[in-house]
């Protein structure tokens, strides 16, 4: 029994010594760990709320987008797009907002404004996909403005396989606008091959057929 009590006393003394040396640090570590866990959960909840808010604004923007004469609500598109750009700057939703504003500008015939909105995405894209989509649309606007050198420069960049067909089609449009018939024909033919009969191939075939009839 005496040995047992002495052993207990020795253990208690070791515990007191250890606590004096390490107790404060241990408490700090525990507090930080708990605080980090709480902070992480709060951050996740905040992110979830923000994502829901952004998604709601995006849906309102897209739902109001005019698709034809007399439909849609351009003012609602602009209001929700402005909110996305202001509250979620630098993110994908802000990029889609700029694309929506560019589309409105094209429908209004304001090509300078459309190009300005698209360049905001091209210059600081949230994702590579957004960059490529915005750049293709920018090229179409530049062609409509007869800014063929600028359009050709944009098309000279590297394109992902999924967008090769569209890029080649636009190269054909640039060549056609310059009356470079052989280059246009080759670009359209390459675009058809890249598209492999998928979306857009009927449009490119019509361009190629029209070009063959003219020349």
TrEMBL record:
InterPro entries named in the record: SecYEG/CpoB_TPR, TPR-like_helical_dom_sf, YfgM
Membrane topology per record: Single-pass type II membrane protein
Domain Ancillary SecYEG translocon subunit/Cell division coordinator CpoB TPR: 16-212
Location, primary (coarse class): membrane
Keywords: Cell membrane, Chaperone, Membrane, Transmembrane, Transmembrane helix
Membrane-spanning intervals of the chain: 23-40
Keyword Secreted: no
Localization (cell): Cell membrane
Protein family: Belongs to the YfgM family.
Protein name: Ancillary SecYEG translocon subunit
Organism: Alloalcanivorax balearicus MACL04
Lineage: Bacteria, Pseudomonadati, Pseudomonadota, Gammaproteobacteria, Oceanospirillales
